[in-house]
Design a protein that fits this description.
There is one protein chain. This protein has helices at residues 38-48, 137-143, 154-162, 172-176, 201-204, 213-221, 253-263, 291-296, 336-346, 356-361, 376-387, 463-472, 484-501, 516-523, and strands spanning 83-84, 90-92, 182-184, 190-192, 234-239, 269-275, 283-288, 330-334, 362-368, 395-401, 404-409, 414-419, 444-447, 456-460, 477-480. The chain has 534 residues and is of the alpha+beta class. Helix 6 (213-221) packs across helix 9 and helix 7 (253-263) packs across helix 12 (463-472). The chain starts with 37 loop residues before the first helix and ends in an 11-residue tail after the last helix.
């Protein structure tokens, strides 16, 4: 019994002093007990841990005592209280001492066997522990959940357009993606580079998918754009009388318009086509920021550059002046389908991520008259090089005019003059569905049809196009368009061909976007291709 009849209690031990001072340390008084000195406490501790004494027979003496954690009577075997790591291996003893650890040595020279048992079976779980892991069948159940009708995935664009050979390589889907999930593959076509979110924008803006391009004509240029060659502000036959035009296409008008816009400070650069350094006559996107840049890249290359897939201004940072991307102004030279794409993208304030500043920066658009474009490897490799024995190194210029494909050597001598229909297999299949020969959505349209040799036909379609013309006109040799009927006839022929190829109704008054289900019904495309092993 303790003071006042209370039971004896064990008090917390007092930490050892870190110094050499042996003076007694007074333990603070606790209720019902007299204060103890440090010496009293040390003596008490030493007595508590003295080994048990035994008599001559080996039996414990009267001073022996037992507790739940210790035994000094010898009647039971002392066991260590240990902590385990969940796998049953002792790590520390009751005094906090680290014991021997056992590790499984990794196998050497062989691959780990990961296919050992059911895929939904957890391994290394301690005995008696139930983790309630969901069964593997939950994945199958999730796969059976129907996709909402208003979601369209890149997989469906791939099924209906790219895999079907109808991609025209404009790059609009790359520019439209708000998660930067679409890139450009080695074959020059769009491909998924990270997870698709099912936002539907790649489908909506594809001129061969969800974008009803004839509706875009009306939105951009008015009702008259769906008849004949449209109703432009004015039309000219023009050329530039300077030495550098020998390498330009026809009259060199596109190059000089862009050069004047740069000089006037209207634009900071122009996205044009350049020839690949690795593959002769293969087109690549290039940002020209000077008159010299433009002259060096004058001329037409008859394959696509995925222009709208190259509107990420980060890739052109070295070419742009030291100013915020939000203040950059650019011109875009492209085929009519590319101009349709950029116009549609600019009509919406959505964030196009890496391409966003580039989409917003396009202030001038120039469309090149176009009946069809070609797959580079089919036209240049198979048709010209393999079948006709023309070395690409000797090709100096190409032109499509009067239904003919004409190829000139580096000295300007014609080395091929052949019906364009002979190259039909090399053309992009999706071009057959295009009824936009003259680029109805552009500010300016430039081509050779309707003008004599060494002149370009120029159609001014918008006030922005008129502004570009006014800046350039003093340095041009020009007159009224020589043969308007030639342009109208070719535009009419292009529409007739498109009407024969389109599997859907041509309807300028219908909604701008075509649902994937409607497209699938017209084209026989598989619905939910992910369920069909796409």
């Amino acid at each position: 019994m303790g003071i006042d009849g209370e039971d004896e209690r064990t008090f917390p031990t007092v930490p050892e002093s870190s110094g050499d001072d042996d003076d007694d340390v007074i333990v603070p008084e606790t209720s019902g007990h007299a204060p103890r000195s440090r010496a009293d406490t040390d003596n008490a501790r030493e007595g508590a841990i003295q080994p048990a004494s035994t008599d001559s027979n080996g039996d414990a003496t009267a001073g022996d005592s037992c507790s739940p954690s210790t035994c000094t009577c010898g009647e039971k075997t002392q066991e260590k209280t240990v902590a385990t790591d969940g796998a049953g291996v002792a790590n520390v003893d009751e005094m906090g001492e680290l014991g021997d650890l056992e590790f499984t040595e990794p196998a050497e020279g062989i691959s780990q066997d990961v296919d050992n048992g059911a895929p939904d079976e957890r391994v290394g779980v301690p005995d008696g522990v139930d983790l309630e892991t969901p069964e593997y069948s939950i994945r199958s159940e999730m796969n059976n959940i129907d996709t909402p009708d208003d979601k369209t995935w890149f997989m469906e664009l791939d099924e209906a357009v790219i895999d079907d050979g109808r991609c025209i390589q404009c790059g609009t889907c790359v520019a439209a993606c708000p998660s930067d999930s679409i890139g450009i593959g080695d074959d020059g076509k769009p491909e998924l580079v990270k997870m698709c979110t099912g936002c539907s924008l790649c489908w909506d803006f594809c001129p061969r998918g969800g974008l009803r391009y004839e509706r875009q004509w009306k939105i951009t240029g008015g009702d008259d754009n769906v008849k004949g060659a449209g109703d432009p502000i004015t039309e000219f036959s023009a050329r530039v009388d300077e030495d550098w035009t020998k390498d330009a296409q026809d009259g060199g008008v596109v190059t000089t318009v862009l050069s004047h816009l740069l000089e006037a400070g209207e634009i900071d650069g122009a996205l044009v086509a350049t020839e690949s350094e690795e593959e002769p006559w293969k087109a690549e996107s290039y940002l020209a920021t000077s008159h010299e840049d433009l002259i060096e890249n004058a001329g037409t290359i008859y394959n696509q550059t995925m222009a709208l897939g190259n509107l990420n201004l980060d890739q052109w940072e070295h070419k742009l002046p030291d100013k915020p991307f939000d203040d950059i102004s650019l011109a875009l030279v492209g085929t009519p389908c590319e101009i349709e794409g950029i116009r549609a993208l600019q009509d919406f304030e959505w964030d196009y991520q890496a391409q966003n500043e580039g989409v917003r920066a396009i202030d001038y658009t120039i469309a090149l008259m176009c009946t069809k474009n070609f797959n580079y490897y089919s036209l240049m490799g198979e048709q010209l090089e393999d079948q006709r024995g023309i070395s690409l190194d000797e090709v100096g210029k190409m032109d499509v005019l009067h239904g003919k494909l004409m190829v000139y050597d580096n000295d300007g001598e014609m080395i091929l003059d052949e019906d364009i229909e002979n190259f039909h297999d090399a053309a992009l299949k999706g071009c057959d569905e295009c009824a936009d020969f003259t680029g109805f959505c552009a500010d300016l349209t430039v081509g050779s049809v309707g003008s004599s040799d060494e002149y370009s036909s120029v159609i001014v379609r918008t006030e922005q196009g008129m502004k570009a013309w006014d800046i350039t006109e003093p340095d041009l040799d020009y007159h009224d368009l020589e043969d308007k009927s030639a342009v109208g006839k070719l535009q009419g022929w292009d529409k007739k061909k498109a009407f024969e190829s389109l599997e859907r109704p041509f309807d300028p008054d219908a909604p701008r976007f075509i649902d994937y289900t409607d497209h699938a019904e017209n084209y026989g495309t598989t619905l939910n291709p992910h369920d069909e092993g796409h």
